[in-house]
Amino acid sequence: MTLKAYNQVPIPSFMYGTAWKKEATTQLVQLAVASGFRAIDTANQLIHYQEALVGEALQTLEKKGIKRDALFLQTKFTPVGGQGGRTPYDASADLTTQVRQSFDSSLDHLHTDHVNSYVLHAPYSRRGLGEADWEVWAAMEELYESGKTKMIGISNVTAAQLTQLCEQASVKPMVVQNRCYAALGWDKEIRKICQTHGIIYQGFSLLTANTDFLADPEIRTIAKRLGAGPAQIIFRFAMQVGMLPLTGTTSQQHMKEDLQAEQFALSTEEIQWIETIAL
Ligand SMILES: NC(=O)c1ccc[n+]([C@@H]2O[C@H](COP(=O)([O-])OP(=O)(O)OC[C@H]3O[C@@H](n4cnc5c(N)ncnc54)[C@H](OP(=O)(O)O)[C@@H]3O)[C@@H](O)[C@H]2O)c1
User: What is the whole-number distance in angstroms between the Cα of residue 248 and the centre of ligand 1?
Assistant: First the structure.
């Protein structure tokens, strides 16, 4: 299954996330693709991701017949504050240069001449968007216009920041990637903005941010009805309300189970109940 952002670029409806996999990244990316995932999320941020090992996995997959074009690759530009002291760019250079250097280094790591989606890991400003955000966004727009990335997006964004970006940017984001808490109505406010603008909302930490919910007896009853597990119910719910979920599993069994969430359906009543479970 694929989703399409407002620029009509297709994106697989479930994404495999590579954060915190360390040396296992290579093997897990191969396993994820063998299990059926076609979209991979990474970042040029050594403190949490091994982007070069994602690239190593891609080379092995290519030898096994899985071509670059069969995969959707998403990576991120991480501002210096989120890099833990090791930047894949000259941190003393201007921000436009930092984005260009980080992007080129991502292409090297991933052994490709383009990525499918390029995401600003987080705005520089806590509230609103400041000069640094606009400079970085302009550099990302330039990469989009050059065709080196087919989509651009933003992560860890507030509703006010996203609204401002949609109103004032030359190129609106095509994707938003946020941690998705049941306690915030599953990021309802931001999902609504995304829906209005044809932006794909990617939800991360759907399981780890909602552990209480996973243990809810009612969820277990729904899961039983469908012959599924609570994790699959969350992923299925995410898909049915229009999100693109990310999973960060390290288990092949869970990879298969997570993908199976595409195979069953929750009722309208179940969806409505889960939407407001923590409100
Ligand atoms: N933009 C950002 O700032 C940002 C921040 C955080 C994450 N992300 C992205 O989002 C991705 C996912 O994040 P996450 O790891 O927090 O996601 P997650 O999928 O909510 O959490 C992963 C955990 O869920 C478990 N799990 C997965 N499927 C399961 C299943 N079917 N049954 C039981 N347990 C299951 C995993 O355990 P097992 O390993 O045992 O399966 C693992 O402990 C990251 O890899 C990264 O790409 C982005």
Answer: 3
Q: How far is the CA of 87 from the centre of ligand 1 (A)?
A: 25
Q: What is the pLDDT of residues 32-62, one digit of tens each?
A: 999 999 999 999 999 999 999 999 999 999 9
Q: Is residue 16 exposed (0-12), middle (13-18) or buried (19+ Cβ within 10 Å)?
A: buried
> For 176-223, how does the pLDDT look when each residue is reduced to its tens digit (9 = 90+)?
999 999 999 999 999 999 999 999 999 999 999 999 988 899 999 999
Instruction: Tell me the three state secondary structure of residue 205.
Output: coil
Nearest-CA residue for atom 33 of ligand 1 = 231
In the reported structure, the alpha carbon of residue 250 is separated from the centroid of ligand 1 by a whole-number distance in angstroms of 8
